[in-house]
Amino acid sequence: MAAREPSAVERIKAASRGLRGTIVSSLADPVTGALADDDRQLIKFHGSYQQDDRDQREERRRAKLEPAYSFMLRTRLPGGVCTPAQWLALDALAGRYGNGTLRITTRQSFQLHGILKSALKPTIAALNAALVDTISACGDVNRNVIASPNPLESALHAEVYEWAVRLSAQLRPRSRAYYELWLDGERLAGEAEPEPLYGPTYLPRKFKVAIAVPPLNDVDVFSNDLGFIAIAEQGRLAGFNLLAGGGLGATHGDPATWPRLADPYGFLTPDQLPAVAENVVAIQRDYGDRSDRNHARLKYTIADRGSDWFRGELERRLGQTLSPARPYRFTHSGDRFGWIEGHDGRWHLTLRIESGRVADTGERRLRTGLARIAAIHRGHFRLTPNQNLIVAAVAPEDRWRIDALVAGYGLDSFRRTTPVARDALACVALPTCPLAMAEAERYLPAATARLEALLRRHGVAGEPLLFRISGCPNGCSRPVLAEIALVGKAPGRYNLQLGGARNGERLNVLYRENIDEDGFIAAVEPLIAAWARQREPGEAFGDFLHRSGLVGAPAGAVARGP
Question: Would the pTM count as exceeding 0.85?
Answer without folding.
Answer: yes
